[in-house]
Amino acid sequence: MTDEKIEALISELTLQEKVDMIHGSEFFSTKGVERLGIPPFKTSDGPMGVRKDFKKDAWTDIGLSYDAVSYMPCNTALAATWNRELAYLAGRLLGKEARGRGKDMILAPGINIMRNPRCGRSFEYMGEDPYLTSELVVPLVKGIEENDVSSCVKHFALNNQETKRLEVNVEVSERALREIYLPAFEAAVKKGKAKGIMGAYNKLRGTHCCHHEYLLDKILREEWGFDGIVVSDWGGVHDTKEALMSSLDMEMSVTSDFDDYYLADPLIKMIESGEIDRETAVAKIDDKVRHILKVMNELRMLDGERKSGTYNDFNDKEALRRTARESVVLLKNDDGMLPLDKKKIKKLLVIGENANRMQALGGGSAEIKALYEITPLMGFNMILGGNTQVIYKPGYYNEDIGNIWAGTDDSENGQADSLNASPEPEKKVKDEEKAKRQKEKNAEYMADALSAAKDADAVIYVGGLTHDFDTEGQDRADMKLPYGQDELISKLLEVRPDTVVVMQVGSPVDMSAWVDKAKSLVCCWYAGMEGGAALAEVIFGDVNPSGRLPETFPVSENDCPSVVLGEFPGGDSVKYGEDIFVGYRYYDTYDVHTAFPFGYGLSYTDFVMTGLSANVVKNTKDRKRVEVKFSVSNIGSRAGAEVAQIYVADKLPKVKKAAKELKAFEKVYLEAGETKHITLELDESAFSYYDEENGGFKVDAGNYMVLLAKSAEEVVDIADVILK
Length: 724
Ligand code: GLC
Prior knowledge:
The protein contains 19 helices and 28 strands. By secondary structure, it is of the alpha/beta class.
């Protein structure tokens, strides 16, 4: 449909019809205009797959027999692959299944930067670095949108905590905003051509992000040229006039009084009463409708042949398995203990409730009704094929159902409640009773596990977190492992120092109580329906691990920059005092010891990277191009993949800068003995910083270092670059 036809359509719409298009008339859909052939706009969560269907006006699922879908690796798992192709495949699958489920917009991906490991939604995001997140969100969005489905990149912006998420006011410098928190959104819009953006719940500098003129009008629309749909987060709108006058297009919420939404009857009443000038209001409403019709047109909802999509396709399982495999991060492997040899294990003991837990239906709006989920225990049974006796002991007692939203007393789904969550007094009593049960049961479970550990040929421990901790709506109370795991793991390592310790997490945990005693340590994530199989393939050597940490694992939360220099979670306001020093930018610059650094991960083979050179091939005022060359060799005995990381450092910065920043990376797959010669390019963005005084990014002339690294703490080569 041409722009002219869209304008003609707008001119035929009544005011009521237009207003019906800019707010939810169901929890996940707006009203269409049947007489003019405008369909409803159907949305669905989320980042890990297409969420189950709910009733139109109640947070109870319909209980369909056909809305189970592919349960995909969480975004942190995807980020741990450092693989742009897998990001594209993830997007393509998510978009195809969204189309297959009849959706027009998938409310994904989440790309907020992790400024503190305790953020409950860290698992939905891609870690601590804006460049890594930018490089993965672009192919992901493209993959989604090639299916005639809109992405909805969220949460714009600065939704970096769950505590007081609806009202917390973020105080952040313009430089940190521009260098840390916005770049991935900018990449999604400018390079990914994203058609949807979701406003965040929180405030920025006193104004709610869902109707924030600076964020939405000045930055998103004017500076970045975004002409897609801005959707509010569900319940994120708090003022009719602000919502009307800002560049928000669609108000969604969690209550069924749809006609009372701010952009519904209250808007009409304000126009009719003259409280808002009719001409101004109509012009603003037309802008919103225009954005919506434009995206509908691009999705071929108004005319043309639209893709139909499918879901649960057998052929997609390989890509899911690949992503899960490549997301596993090998953190320790003393004496080459891993991989385990299937032939030598007749009796395998698997300890840890996470080995036997399905994680899909948890985490809040990212929950997934999975067609199936292979748990680690299933994966071990699959790969050992009955030739090994697999014994399972939970090891610790966990009565949590893994979904803090499910089954809350006064509503069948806590999403509505989560918007005004506050721990009720009686909940405290329940917690005390629960803690008592935990302690009693743990003693029994631990004794059982430790006694079984004595005569097993091998022991694998699978613990970590669940979606009772990695979840929307609340931040973790601390970085500690729940359910008394520290004591169990410590005692287990005394009995069996060769225990393979697996941490299944959605965010960093404090392992200081026992990590030095562990000879092998594997980090896996909520890696989707194939996650347990992929983990088994890595532990038993069918797959060589190639994951790298997308976020630092600090020794303890007290080391975190958001605690040392900033506030987390703050009060009614939260000061991002750490400024640009987020994640490794802090630990590296301030020389703070970490448990495991950003970009870190081991392999079952060995790599060397040599011959770094960096040459300035273009150096005009506006355009810089530096060509970086190096070689990567696999000097070990089996194929594998190295993630070559390129950081940039300013040797004599004129303003405060991080010691170094990630500005390029390449995942290099090599057969044993193979060498590849890599060439990467750095443009001016690799050397620029945001100049708060004059506004805008700039590059200072001077001496820079280009660093070739295996992680933020392991630089293998440095080349100098002079920019005039
Ligand atoms: C939630 C989340 C958002 C989700 C939306 C719809 O509260 O913040 O990520 O897409 O509401 O469920």
